[in-house]
Specification:
By secondary structure, the chain is an alpha+beta fold. Helices cover 35% and strands 11% of the residues.
Length: 221
């Protein structure tokens, strides 16, 4: 596929056929994706290909508290899990309600499931001393995760970048034998899409790009 076509048609796929994803195909995807940019070229990422069905099933109760809070906050009119505005919900009550969250079980049963971590001891987190949630560390892992999804699209596969597992990071680390200095960054299910979307809805450039200042005039062609 042409690069522009891959970039414009890589969507969040949450439904797959039963066709397996071979180890050879998955290896080829990772072999292409490994050229992603990252801080200092330290390549602090680690990928765990989760094949054991018992481990996959164990992901579901670890994801549930995070998604239960998400749904409760959304129902309260809040932007779920945002780090700016305090939440008004009762967290324990939200978790106890245990509402179903679309696609969680299906994602753990996808033909291929990858878990991504990043070694925080080699990442330059320039915002670590700021009084807000850190985002800079993601620059050394998410370009790689996105490269995996782009490479998968080029091979006719589809997947979705999820971050639910991070809500129970310590338990996930214990389940997968991940050292404490490695952050749990993403779980990505992959497979052959039941339906390939080709027309994605996104805001035009002029709505999110300005000149010189945040409140500057829109950048136009």
């Amino acid at each position: 596929m042409e690069l522009a076509d891959v970039m414009r048609t890589t969507f969040s796929c949450r439904s797959w056929t039963d066709e397996p994803v071979t180890d050879e195909l998955l290896h080829r995807i990772l072999d292409t994706a490994r050229f992603a940019p990252n801080g200092g070229n330290r390549q602090g990422w680690r990928v765990i290909v989760v094949k054991d069905p018992d481990i996959r099933r164990a992901f579901v109760p670890l994801i549930k508290p995070t998604t239960s809070i998400y749904l409760a906050q959304a129902a309260a009119g809040e932007a779920p899990w945002n780090s700016v505005h305090p939440s008004s919900i009762d967290v324990e009550e939200a978790i106890a309600a245990d509402p179903p969250f679309p696609g969680v079980v299906e994602m753990t049963e996808a033909p291929a499931v990858l878990v991504f971590t990043v070694d925080l001891s080699v990442v330059a987190s320039f915002d670590k001393d700021l009084d807000r949630v850190g985002v800079i560390s993601g620059a050394s892992i998410y370009p790689f995760v996105w490269n995996v999804l782009l490479a998968a699209r080029n091979e006719g596969l589809g997947g979705v970048l999820t971050t639910y597992l991070a809500g129970q990071e310590a338990k996930v680390q214990a389940l997968l034998g991940v050292p404490s200095h490695h952050a749990i960054c993403a779980m990505v299910p992959l497979g052959h899409p039941t339906k390939q979307l080709t027309k994605l809805k996104r805001k035009p450039v002029e709505e999110f790009t300005t000149i010189d200042r945040f409140d500057g005039p829109p950048f136009e062609a």
